[in-house]
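Q: what does this look like with adenosine-5'-diphosphate bound?
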Amino acid sequence: MADIYVFIGPPGVGKGTLGEMFCEETKAVHVSTGDLLRQEMAAGTELGNKVKGIIAEGGLVSDDIVAEMVEGRLQKDDIVAKGCLLDGFPRTVPQAEALRDILKRTGHKMAAVVSIEADQQMLITRLTARRMCTNKECGAIFNVVAMPPKTEGICDKCGAKLYQRSDDTKEAALHRLDVYAKQTAPLIDFYKKEGKLIRSTSRDLPAEANYANLKAALKA
Ligand code: ADP
Ligand code: ZN
């Protein structure tokens, strides 16, 4: 029995970074379905191989696959003890319905759903400029325009190499934004009707400022 928070927002909005900050402060476990899927791909598991193509194109993995993966994760001891932040799930209305059933079965409680919103042009710029740390333990995220690393291609935090995600090319990024508008944006209404929705706008500001904004919205 633990508190579950959900962050929804378009790709590039800073959901992952804000999620890290939130979890550091609240000690909730950070569960990113994108990270879980990338771990499966890196490990070359059957699941990883199955989803590789669709992720590279910027499409969505099937609802059943992700729901099963999330249900398994929510039953682990760390989440039962500390609760978690779901980052990137649910992403479709069927996934939100699946989550409702998962919460019933696991006994967890939905604490709040935060919709993080931003200007479309800012999202495109940010996505194509994004670089990730190859060190999974580190997970730092840079931006070659707004937050470049001190040495090109190298992580400031741990010294590992940086890489660009295969779905952060302009073409794939535009497709992901389109998929978001069609498949994920309807969740905003879904959770508004359930009385769980909190909205927060992210601007072209340091992550700390956007985080302060999000926290204020959560407390209001
Ligand atoms: P972003 O939020 O930057 O788009 P994520 O790391 O959350 O990226 O997800 C990367 C990719 O993983 C998505 O484009 C999609 O293919 C897949 N994915 C992640 N979460 C889900 C989900 N809940 N349902 C379906 N596909 C997902
Ligand atoms: Zn690093």
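The longest strand covers residues 109-117. The mean pLDDT is 94.
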